[in-house]
Design a protein that fits this description.
Elements (H helix, E strand, L loop, with lengths): L2 E2 H7 L5 H9 L3 E3 L2 E2 L5 E2 L5 E3 L2 E2 L2 H6 L4 E6 L29 E2 L8 E7 L2 H8 L7 E8 L4 H9 L1 E3 L2 E3 L3 E4 L7 E8 L6 H7 L4 E10 L2 E2 L9 E3 L2 H9 L6
Parallel strand pairs: 9-15
Antiparallel strand pairs: 1-4, 2-3, 2-5, 5-6, 7-9, 7-17, 8-9, 10-14, 10-15, 11-12, 13-14, 15-16
Helix pairs in contact: 1-2, 1-4
């Protein structure tokens, strides 16, 4: 069965749909020796080449949908190569016979905790897409005075440089009398550094940030920082179900 070229290649892990569209627009993709255009359809039985290299779609898609719950530590970066030589999460992942691992969103270098990694480009795209509003959970340590009025503002919504943002929930930790207090927050927006920027808008500083959940997946227990645990089929189905996918 044929499908849109960008969707097929995204499922096979060659990038997001938008990235594949850019490759098509630049004339770098060919289907059966013809230059591909936006709107073209293909199947695993077609000869698809990118930059002259034949893509083994059938083998890649045979890998299926795999998802890892990775436990990132601070100082790791979520890129395949880092010009500064910092450790990358991709060096710690299991080898694949075909396809490649794709990070679902990013965590900045100073943020630790749960990062989902998958072989499925379409699952990645939907989990990241703002229309699905997948809940992210964080444990955050704050330096500075926090009062109830501030929490109310953060729940109601504050204006950032890229629009209004807010927390869906805030739970206060049990360390109320310490200079650095812990909070548990949830947010449905995957915008860049949104948790840090929300707190900064109130004049306080995030001294530590750890993601503890993404959708139906929690931070894996018993896994050391830099390690991972693979989701089983039931967990993958539940996660995919959040974004209307059957896997």
């Amino acid at each position: 069965m044929s499908e849109r070229l960008q969707k097929l290649l995204a499922r096979a892990g060659y990038g997001s749909r938008r990235q594949i569209e850019q490759v098509i627009e630049s004339g770098r993709l060919r289907i059966n020796d013809k230059v591909a255009t936006l709107g073209d359809r293909a199947s695993v039985h077609d000869r698809v080449r990118m930059d002259g290299k034949l893509l083994n779609l059938e083998e890649r898609l045979a890998v299926g949908c795999r998802v890892l719950a990775y436990k990132k530590h601070v100082d790791q970066v979520v890129t395949r190569r880092d010009p500064e030589g910092r450790p990358t999460i991709f060096k710690s992942l299991p080898k694949l016979r075909a396809g490649r691992w794709l990070a679902v969103g990013r965590l900045d270098v100073n943020t630790s905790g749960l990062l989902l990694v998958t072989t499925d480009g379409e699952l990645k795209r939907r989990l990241e897409h703002p229309s699905y509003e997948v809940v992210r959970s964080y444990a955050v340590r704050i330096r500075g005075e926090v009062d109830d009025a501030m929490l109310d503002r953060l729940l109601a919504g504050v204006e950032l440089d890229d629009g209004t943002a807010r927390f869906d929930s805030i739970r206060v930790g049990e360390d109320a009398h310490r200079a650095n207090r812990w909070f548990e927050v949830t947010v449905r927006q995957g915008r860049n550094r949104v948790v840090r920027r929300l707190w900064a808008s109130q004049g306080v500083t995030v001294s530590r940030l750890m993601r503890t959940g993404f959708g139906t997946v929690g931070l894996p227990s018993g896994v050391k920082a830099g390690g991972w645990r693979e989701l089983d089929r039931k967990q993958v189905r539940e996660l995919a179900g959040l974004v209307d996918l059957k896997r």
